[in-house]
User: Fold these one by one.
Assistant:
Number 1:
Amino acid sequence: MSAKTHTTARRTGMRLALGAASVALLATTLSGCAASADAASGATAAGPAAELRLGYFDNVTHAPALVGLENGLLQDSLGSTKLSTQIFNAGPATIEALSAGAIDAAYIGPSPAVNSYIKSKGESVKIVAGATSGGAALVVRDGINSAADLKGKTLASPQLGNTQDVALRAWLSSKGFTTDTSGGGEVKITPTENAQTLTLFQSGAIDGAWLPEPWVSRLVVDAGAKVLVDESSLWPDGAFPTTVLLVQKGFLAEHPETVEALVAGNAASVDWLTKNPTDAATVINKKLTADSGKALSDAVITRALTKVTFSTDPLASTFAVSLENGVTAGTTKTGDLNGLFDLTALNKVRTAAGEKPVSASGLGTE
């Protein structure tokens, strides 16, 4: 090789080396910018979680959770992520557990979700999917035939500030009655665990209750109560959310893949319930028996299942009304619900299944 040729080759090699170094520098710079952008947006994704801790209720309104657990649909979707569970009676206690970091996600009613979001100024939770609509009512004893007959009576709800408690207080207000969160007012409201409500109703200690299924059906079938108000009659087209799927905001930011897997498992449970209505009672009762040692009677579970609809659509357009009702009930302060929903994982799952995306109604991402 001549000296001239050697010099040219050396210069070419230097240019290539410098070019490669520039590309590497550019890649590093872009990576740093992306990392800075992620940090600025609060994104701290750390891959799939080792464990997901899920809360739910032993109610027919939580059938997607019951079926998803009993049939293994939730765990199958989560893969290597361990699924552990905790059972609650009502939403406010579930929110306390979420806030304390004892659980990461939960099946829950709209009112506690709204209350938590308002109190935390949007920093606590995100609704990522729907589960159940319908299945709540005010049941009363004989002799009570209208709202006017409730004056001076005592009614129960599952827990102060839970979805049915808020619905009851808001409805009584619309009928001109005063209530307060201490159990006073023209109609007294006593927040009580559902099983105790049945006992108290049977003993005559309370006159009625606003409850979710299967407790409405239990009071009707087992205790002779009658329905005074089916909550579906208070909503346009009778559609209102009873149960949604909620996750802790920090858990979603850290483990979006795990949340997407949970959402997919919930969708599989809803799909199973929709396609297997004749087997639903058997599977639900199997899980209830495993949890509490007791199954529902055929009459109760059959009636309860006719009152609910299962869907992954959380019906976001109803949540402004849920907030209004909470303010009226005195259990929630007014506030901004924008950002409450993150339906990106849900709509990804729905699209993959050939279903239409659902709307966050301006209250979050889709």
Number 2:
Amino acid sequence: MPERLPPLTALRAFDAAARHMSFAKAAEELNVTPAALSFQIKSLEEHLGAPLFRRLNRAVELTEAGTALAPGAKDGFRALSAAWQQARRVLDTTSLTVTAGPALTAKWLAPRLYDFARSHPEIDLRFSATLRNVDLQRDGVDVAIRFGYGSDEGLVSLPARAEWLTPVMTPDLSAQYPTPESLRAAPLIYDDSISFLSPPCDWPAWFKAMGLEFTPGSGTHFSNADHAIDAACAGLGVALGRRPMIIKDVQEGRLVAPFKTAIETEARFRFLCLPGSEARPQIKAFREWFFAEIEKTAHMWDDFEIIPVQNL
């Protein structure tokens, strides 16, 4: 028979004290008195038959037994907390937390979310615009939308449409640079956020797709795709824009995409969620809306020649 574990309250008191190395701070975290916390740890030590802390004048330190217990206690409470949160999320059909990169959020998602919110007033939508790696099991996030080549092991991963890039500029700049050849003398804007793509989907690749030689010179570099597109809207230069980043500005006339050739990368935006959660009503509703919204503007690029960059 497995050995009976000590009371959970005593283990929780030990975990807090081991993390803070202070009974007073641990008691404050757990909202109990220092005396109550000390009593719980004493009972745990009696259960073990050995001290877990050395009590010093104004501090405590772990004994060898305490050092052995501390990592497992910490991991155990983290796992228990994550499992509890996940159980609550399974029962929650009204709240939805989504994370996406800042550029996609600013240029594509945020302008369209009113439509989703209006169609689903029962859903309490929370959005986190970040590229930070998230743990869908532990971080309280229901859906992540990410761009790249991720393997997404252990997740439901639904790829969006093929991703490609084409030059965009203001109508005034388009009149100044009417041909692909003339772009070699134009002020070019560089989106460094996609420098990880392999093969590269950059200006040399696009010019190569047009059958033109090009040696990169000076230009303006941005670390965020939305900043690069905003700079193009301001007339700073010509940007090589990704489809979701340029669609709204092209639709509303701030930018034009005059050359009907684009280079396609194998990287994709993916809709990610935990296995089994895809059937939850709010996740299913958001997934259906997300992919339907992409299809609404797919026809705009029907006359483009899309060239896979790996074929160049």
